[in-house]
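Exercise: predict the fold of this chain.
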Amino acid sequence: MPIYTRAGDSGETGLMGGRKVRKDDLRVEAYGTIDEANSFLGLAASFSDDKQINDIIEKIQHNLFAIGSNLATPAEDRTRINYPIPEISQHDVDSLEKIIDDVEKELPDLKKFILPSGSRTAAALHVARSVVRRAERVVVSFSKKEQINFSIVKYLNRLSSLLFELARLANKRANVSDKEWNAK
């Protein structure tokens, strides 16, 4: 079976549950931005030889798939699906906070803003962080249109903080100094 179906040639896409929406629908923008962040995390992992960082990234990627599945499935269509849609919960948010706390123990205190740069792993993590921030904004906009699990917004908020700290950790472990912003 070919990967292309031609079903989207009219500018519409199918949601989980079968409903069709325009490709520029805010729902599609929300889960598409989650997918984009997930892809940049895969890129960051491909640059990294650090098992701990890669294990964290992989766990995040699984959660981002869960978030994308939630966003791609209208609540009223969930009964049409023959498999459970995994939920993001406060427990997932708390897990991110614990990882942030653990990572911060290894890092020096931050006294100035830093540029999103450094090792290839760190730079890719910074890109993923900025895409997660955009995803958060889109999901918040989408939540005005349709009720969502608000743990998703909290998860994305913590995730961007974690990715910032992981970028700093990747630089530290690669012996690459973070570059401080010079406000002129």
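Check your answer against the key: The chain has a mean pLDDT of 90.
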